[in-house]
Design a protein that fits this description.
439 residues, six-stranded mixed β-sheet, three-stranded antiparallel β-sheet, 12 helices
Length: 439
């Protein structure tokens, strides 16, 4: 099987992750991760499969219909259940590792065909007191976890014990994945560099008359020719008033002279994604109103990036960005009320309906706790966290309370930030955002 020449992963990379996970789990815990199900776009044509992030994180295994079981401290600690070798299926759909290949190539203690999962899991889970899983308490991918747990309970006889505790896998995967290792940071830097270059290509290509879809195609071409396997999420390519729709994904309109274009797009490189948003004029010239609003958002974004450091947290940053943006809303005469009233009644959400950012990694909205377990104390940033900073202002097209020159404008500026030992690093620094630097 041909290897990806750009791949930075090796077996030690995944083994080290499993070693760190074992330190977060008890010897009576077991982790069971199911692969992402195959979804069909129409008839018998499936969407391209993308492995469950946590399953790939611990194994490097990408095939569908697979299951990873992790039993920390046990003689058989890491086990993969995979599709069987099938020459006919491989003729149609491509290479399969099979159980023997999966064990050898992915440094597993054991590997079996997925049809053996229910019988083998009875022994693998027999000692467990808690099971962490990404499956709902029922079934996933046609395999029933609940049935296995019931059988284990019956094995214990009339002990009076109920089913073992079942917990969300993110309870143990979140603390592990939220703090990036140096190897992961290097991959993220590559992902951000690839995505920045693709954004710059779009900036050069944009012009009145070009379609949002064509620009999206340019982005896909540029990230893939640089080694990205796919988008990290569905890109937003929003011209004109479409930019005031936060998750606009139609991407089929024509860019008009005098409009702004908002592009929120990131490439995924080796399962780690970038997340960049830029807003700029279709005709490469801001109107005075556009430039004024843009520079207000840009100034806020730079202020908020400068506030990122170990010990800071999303709650405080969100309160700060709301305060700054409300100041601008009042200066722009979007409200005729006091600042306290706009904030306390959350009226600002008309023009700024989202939060400042989110964790970033294998998922664009990546795992990681924002608060303590009782949801009262904000979790402080640590070195190795990666997050986005993305303030914005969105003036609805039909907002007759707003100045006419601002109606229909949507501006968001987003960068990916690594928390360092002392402060921060802007991973997406190569993507232009100052008006003088835009092509």
């Amino acid at each position: 099987m041909k290897k990806n020449p750009e791949a930075l992963y090796n077996l030690e990379f995944f083994k080290n992750r499993r070693t760190r996970l074992a330190q977060l789990m008890k010897s009576t815990d077991v982790l069971v991760l199911f692969s992402t199900p195959e979804y069909y776009r129409n008839a018998d044509v499936p969407h391209n499969h993308r492995q469950d992030s946590s399953l790939f994180y611990l194994s490097g295994f990408e095939e569908s219909h697979s299951i990873f079981v992790f039993c920390p401290g046990q003689k058989t600690e890491s086990v993969l259940f995979v599709q069987k070798k099938d020459s006919l299926k491989e003729t149609w759909d491509g290479f399969l590792f099979g159980a023997e290949g999966a064990k050898e190539q992915f440094a597993m203690d054991e590997a079996f065909e997925n049809t053996e999962f229910e019988s083998k899991a009875l022994d693998l889970l027999a000692h467990a007191q808690k099971v962490y899983t990404n499956a709902e308490y029922g079934s996933k991918d046609g395999i029933t976890l609940h049935t296995i747990l019931k059988q284990i309970q019956k094995r214990k006889g009339r002990s009076g014990l109920g089913l073992m505790t079942v917990a969300d896998s993110l309870a143990v995967m979140g603390p592990l994945r939220v703090k990036k290792t140096e190897e992961e940071i290097q991959i993220l830097r590559k992902s951000c560099q690839i995505s920045a270059e693709a954004h710059k290509a779009m900036m050069h290509a944009v012009r009145p008359g070009i379609s949002e879809r064509e620009l999206h195609g340019i982005f896909l071409y540029e990230i893939m020719k640089r080694g990205a396997q796919r988008e990290g999420y569905s890109a937003i390519v929003a011209s004109g008033s479409h930019a005031t729709t936060l998750h606009y994904k139609t991407n089929h309109d024509i860019c008009q002279d005098g409009e702004l274009l908002l592009v929120d797009a990131g490439g995924e490189y080796n399962y780690l994604t970038a997340d960049i948003t830029r807003t700029y004029p279709v005709n490469k010239k801001f109107t005075s109103e556009q430039k004024d609003l843009y520079e207000r958002v840009l100034d806020v974004q730079k202020t908020m990036i400068a506030a990122v450091k170990p010990g800071a947290h999303f709650k405080a940053l969100n309160e700060q960005v709301i305060s700054l943006l409300v100041d601008h809303m009042l200066e722009l005469k979007l409200f005729k009320l006091s600042k306290d009233e706009v904030i306390n009644k959350r009226l600002y959400t008309k023009y700024y309906p989202h939060s400042l950012g989110h964790f970033l990694g294998m998922d664009v909205h990546d795992v990681g706790a924002y608060y303590s377990s009782d949801l009262t104390v904000p979790k402080a940033f640590e070195a190795g966290n990666v997050l986005t900073i993305e303030p914005g202002l969105y003036i609805p097209k039909d907002d007759d309370q707003a100045p006419k020159g601002l109606r229909g404008l949507g501006i968001r500026i987003e960068d990916d930030i690594l928390v360092t030992q002392d402060a921060f690093e802007v991973l997406t620094h190569d993507c232009p955002k100052d008006p003088s630097d835009l092509p």
